[in-house]
Write a structure and sequence with these properties.
With 280 residues, the chain is of the alpha/beta class. The chain is built from nine helices and nine strands. Helix 6 runs parallel beside helix 8.
Length: 280
């Protein structure tokens, strides 16, 4: 389907684009952001997908993280989709809560009405979004994925389920086990229904237990994150990675919280991490 360029802003020598298209997967119009480094004017570049967290749109990361300077430095594109389907016809949480519905697609394919008509963010990220990049100087065969919080959960689960599609994965403050935290239990219960056996396919800890392939993994978690104990459950991912002999770099950064200040502090290290696998 045709894409429409909404904006194109010069940034660190490259271009920050905002693109709209009609999504067949989500049954609505969607917007995503793309940063193209200057080298993209000469050749195709690899891509890192960024998945944002609860309440975010395609704009939060590109305006707050300061990632463009490092995407330019390492010669990679960054593609940041929205976090859920959008539009007047897309159902939302009845109480307009921040942790479900609009802005909270959880990167799953919903099976329960009324969510199943639109909420297929897993298919959107893995299938439809890469196809929308066909007319851009991006080599989607060289792809990595990263994200924050709900988006960290999305990045980890998508990469673990599709190890042939991504060369590496990283996350800031990910929801490591949604089946074991209030945010995840609410989202998965509504999107997938009461049968908890269906939830495991979107739980990073459960996927690590089942994994037979190994991707490079980097996780950064703020030690002063107010959501760490109740929602994020980093210790569960650490334990299961050891048990499954899945090598991961999981770092607790003392004094850092859950905010974009944390992301901005370490985003270069994440882009450099991915570039090692994308540019060889």
């Amino acid at each position: 389907m045709a894409i429409e360029q909404l904006s194109n802003v010069r940034c660190f020598g490259g271009q920050q684009l905002r693109i709209q298209h009609r999504s067949a997967v989500l049954n609505c119009d969607m917007v995503f952001a793309v940063y193209l480094p200057s080298i993209a004017s000469q050749r195709q570049v690899p891509v890192i997908y960024w998945l944002s967290g609860l309440t975010c749109t395609d704009e939060n990361f590109v305006t707050k993280a300061g990632a463009q300077q490092f995407a330019e430095k390492y010669g990679v594109a960054i593609v940041a989709p929205d976090t859920s389907p959008r539009g007047d016809d897309v159902p939302d949480d009845a109480d307009k809560a921040y942790d479900f519905g609009l802005g909270a697609g959880f990167y799953v394919n919903a099976t329960q009405a009324p969510w199943s008509q639109h909420y297929h963010m897993y298919d959107y990220v893995t299938r439809e979004l890469p196809a929308q990049l066909a007319d851009l100087p991006i080599d989607t065969d060289r792809a990595s994925i990263m994200g924050h919080s709900m988006g960290g959960h999305g990045a980890l689960t998508i990469a673990l389920k599709n190890p042939q599609q991504y060369r590496s994965v990283s996350a800031f403050s990910p929801i490591c086990s949604p089946i074991n935290c209030p945010w995840g239990q609410k989202a998965l219960g509504h999107y997938l229904g009461d049968d908890r056996s269906t939830w495991a396919q979107y739980d990073s800890c459960e996927l690590v237990k089942q994994s037979t392939e190994r991707l490079p993994v980097l996780v950064d978690q703020g030690g002063a994150d107010g959501f760490l104990v109740e929602q994020l459950k980093t210790e569960l991912l650490q334990a299961v990675a050891i048990e499954a002999n899945y090598p991961m770099t999981i770092r607790v950064q003392a004094g850092y919280d859950h905010s974009y200040y944390f992301i901005a502090s370490f985003i270069e290290e994440h882009i450099q991490f991915h570039s090692r696998y994308l540019n060889n």
